[in-house]
């Protein structure tokens, strides 16, 4: 495996570890509402991701303008997800909320790919 692949695997592993502990960490702050935690995660994470993505956003600005409806829909989905995720943790508990949230992501991704791009479903 080359250096770039190893770096990618390490980045995904670290992200998985950090993301996998957010529901548990939020459960230790019962006085803070799930929407506040979701908004904080979205704000801090969004600012960091936006800063990292600036070069790509600038280089792809014409494509983004052309597909502005998809960009807006994606932004709304990304904005809604942490609010729904932390609310599910509060309502269902960390274990159940995490399993459902993590298990449904690939399922819905596959369904959207099948519906929108008309690709047949595969094991992958």
Structural description of this entry:
It is a single chain. This protein has 124 residues and is an all-alpha fold. Helix content is 84%, strand content 0%. The protein contains six helices and no strands. It has helices at residues 3-20, 22-27, 34-59, 61-66, 68-92, 94-116. α5 (68-92) runs antiparallel to α6 (94-116).
Topology readout:
Layout: H1 3-20, H2 22-27, H3 34-59, H4 61-66, H5 68-92, H6 94-116
Helix pairs in contact: 3-5, 5-6
Mean pLDDT: 86
Number of helices: 6
Q: N-to-C terminal Cα separation, in Å?
A: 21 Å
Strand content: under 5%
Tell me, briefly, the overall form: globular
Low-confidence stretches: none
Helicity range: over 70%
Largest sheet: none
Structural class: mainly alpha
What is the radius of gyration?
A: 17 Å
Q: Write down the secondary-structure element order.
A: HHHHHH
Number of strands: 0
Notable traits:
single chain, 124 residues, 6 helices
Short description:
By secondary structure, the protein is mostly helical. 84% of the residues lie in helices and 0% in strands. Helix 3 packs antiparallel against helix 5 and helix 5 (68-92) packs antiparallel against helix 6 (94-116).
